[in-house]
Each structure stands twice: as C-alpha cells, then as structure tokens.
Design a protein that fits this description.
single chain; mainly alpha; two-stranded antiparallel sheet; 2 helices
Length: about 70
C-alpha cells in the first residue's frame, strides 16, 4: 500500500488483490467523516436521524429475520 499527499489530495494505492468490499466500506466511512465535519446538526438531531434510519431499515428487512 502506498499513501501520497499532494497539495490538493491524498492518494492511496492498494494492490489489485485487495478486498474490494472492504475498500468500499472504508471509502464510505471517509466520505461520512468528510460530510459530518461540515454538519451543523446537533447530537440530538443526529440520534433522531439514526433512529429513523434504523426503523426504516427494519421495516424493509424484518421479513428476512422474523418467520
């Protein structure tokens, strides 16, 4: 793995054999951190949004788990 920092960006190179799913999850986390750092939301607003998201996920997927 190589990490290079330029004036405008950070370049990360990993071998082609690296697990793509893991790389995608890492990139999603980095994107989340980037967006969150610009947010003016309060902790209570973030908690409420998280609860809504979990509830919506459960409503869409509960049939997969509850028979």
């Amino acid at each position: 793995m190589n990490i290079e920092q330029t004036k405008d960006e950070i370049l990360i190179r990993v071998p082609k054999s690296t697990d793509l799913n893991g790389v995608e999850r890492l990139l999603e986390f980095i994107r989340f951190r980037e967006i969150a750092s610009k947010s003016n939301a309060t902790d209570d607003q973030i908690d409420e949004l998280a609860n809504q998201s979990k509830n919506q996920w459960w409503d869409r997927n509960k049939d997969r788990f509850v028979k």
